[in-house]
Design a protein that fits this description.
The chain is mainly alpha-helical and 108 residues long. The chain contains six helices and no strands. The longest helix is centred in the N-terminal third of the chain and has 25 residues, at 2-26. The relative contact order is 0.12.
């Protein structure tokens, strides 16, 4: 469990710093770039489509785990737009709430 939690913390820190640097260099125009790459029908767009599938699955799993309650639907929406910057802290929190029981963590 310590390695899993360490991985989640590393993901939060690395992506957080990376995001700050990208925003400083390129601004907050993520959606324009994201959908622009998809429209170009090239490898960056293929990656974005693949990543969007992971975001959808993350959002659905988060909503399902929270029993599709109003909070669960809100968290699912945040999962979709927040990516790993939502999912890693959410999983980290759940790892403590479930006392490290991976079955409880992932199945609720």
């Amino acid at each position: 469990m310590a390695l899993f939690r360490g991985l989640l913390i590393a993901m939060i820190l690395v992506l957080g710093i990376y995001t700050i640097l990208v925003i400083q260099a390129h601004g907050m125009n993520l959606l324009t770039v994201f959908f622009g790459d998809i429209a170009k029908m090239a490898w960056p767009g293929q990656f974005n489509m693949d990543f969007a599938g992971f975001l959808i699955l993350s959002a659905l799993w988060t909503s399902w785990r929270e029993h599709f309650s109003p909070l669960g639907l809100l968290l699912g929406l945040i999962a979709f737009f927040g990516g790993i910057m939502f999912l890693a802290p959410y999983l980290l929190l759940l790892s403590y709430r479930t006392d490290g029981d991976m079955k409880k963590l992932f199945l609720g």
